[in-house]
Design a protein that fits this description.
The structure holds two protein chains of two kinds. Chain A is α+β, with helices and mostly antiparallel strands. Chain A has helices spanning 15-25, 42-52; strands spanning 3-8, 32-37, 56-62, 67-72. A four-stranded mixed beta sheet of chain A has the order 1-2-4-3, with helices on one face. In chain B, 34% of the residues lie in helices and 16% in strands. In chain B, helix 2 packs across helix 9 (202-211) and helix 6 (112-128) crosses helix 7. Classes of the chains: A alpha+beta, B alpha/beta. Chains A and B meet through helix 1 and helix 2 of A and helix 3, helix 4 and strand 3 of B.
Amino acid sequence: MSQHTLDCRNLLCPMPVIRTQNALKELSEGELLEVTCTDPGTLSDIPTWCRINQHEVVSTEEDKHEIVFIIKK
Amino acid sequence: MTQETSSVNTGEQPKQRKAVALISGGLDSLLAAKVVQEQGIHVEGINFYTGFCVEGHTHAIRKKDKDKQKRNNSLWVAEQLGIKLHIIDISEEYKDIVLNPKHGYGANLNPCLDCKIFMVNQAQAWAWAEENGFDFIITGEVIGQRPKSQRKETMPIIARESGADDRLLRPLCAKNLMPTLPEREGWVNRDELYDFSGRSRKPQFELAKKFGFEDFAQPAGGCCFLTDANYSKKLADLWDARGERRYELDDIMLLKVGRHIRPKKNFKLIVSREEGENNFLRGYKKQFTSIHTVSHGGPLTLLDGEFDKEDIKLAAQIAARYSGGKNADQVTVQVENYKGTSFVMDVPPMSAEEVKQEWHV
C-alpha cells in the first residue's frame, strides 16, 4: 500500500488540519498519509477531524518536538 | 424532466435536501444547524480560516493556557451535530476584505459586514458546485446580535451582495424576515424556525438546553482578533510603520504573540513572555534577526523592520531588560541574522523607566 507524507511542522491549528484535509482529498480510499506536526493542538484537532469525516487515525507517535500521525483514508 | 418533478409525479420519496451551515464554533451557528437538521435536512458544516481566528492558535502558543482545553470549537460543534466539516483557508483572499472593506469597519479594525458577505459568498460558491450539490445555506445570524453586521437592515444586504439571495436561511431569526426559498418550497417548516432578536443570549441558552448542548464556547467579542482593540492597535501600528496597508500571514500570526515594543519607527521588537512563546518565535529565526541573552536566562526577541548597528544595540538593551540580568551592569547577548550568522555583544540593560511607555504597541 502506498504511503504519502505531509509536513505540517511549524504550522499552527487549524492549518495542519486544513492541509491534511486537502491532502486526503487527493488520495484514494484505503491509502495512508503520514502527517508530521509540531503544534500540540493537533493532538486533539486531527483525530477529531478524522472522526467526523470518517477517516481512521492508524497511529499517533509523539516525542518532545514532533507528533506523527498515520491516517487511513 | 427534473428529478424534482419526477418525484412528484411518481409519488417517490421527495429529494433529500442539503444545506451547508457556516460553523464558527460558537453557540448560534451550532443551534442554527441543529434546528434545520431536526427538520430532516442533510446538513454539512463549512468553516473559514481567515488568519485572524482566535481559535486554537493562542492556546497552543502560550504555556500558561496549557491547562485549558485545546479543542477547536468548530470541530467540536461538528462532532456534536454529527456532521462533516469542511475547513477552507481563505486567508489570502481575505486580505482584500481587511484592507478595503466596502462597508467600513466596526469599533476596531473589524470589517464584520464585508466579512459576512464574503463568507456567505464563498460558502455559496462551494455549496453550489456540482460535485457538492447543496440547496441552501444556513447561518446563525440573529437580528440585533452584533452592532456592525447583524442588524435588520444588513440582513438583505448580506443575502443580496453574497449572491445567495433567498437561498440564505437564518433559522434563529427567520420569522422576523421574509420567507426564503427553503421555506416557500416547504423544504423546511417556517413554523418550526425562530424569531430571536436583540443582544440577549437567553433564548439561545434555552434552546441549547432543550437540545442538550452543554460546554459550548462563548468567546467574548466573537471568534476574530480584529474585534479586539489591542490587536487592532498592533495591526494599525504595523501599517503605519511600513507606510502602507499590507500584511502577510506571518505578520498577523506574530501580532498574537509576545510584547511588541517599537522604540523607533523603522523597527520593533517582539519579546516572548514565556516558554511557549519562546518556542513559537524560535520557528521564525530563519526569517528575522533574533536576540537572545547568553549571560543570563531570558526571552527570545525578534527584530522586525530595518535597523542599523546602533538600532541593534538599542534592541539588545531592551531585550536585556526582560532577562534575568535586568539588574546586572552588563548582559551578554547573541545577535543572529536570518542566515544564521551571529555575533556576541555586551550591553547595559535598560531600566524600566528607560523603556518608554509609548514604545509599547
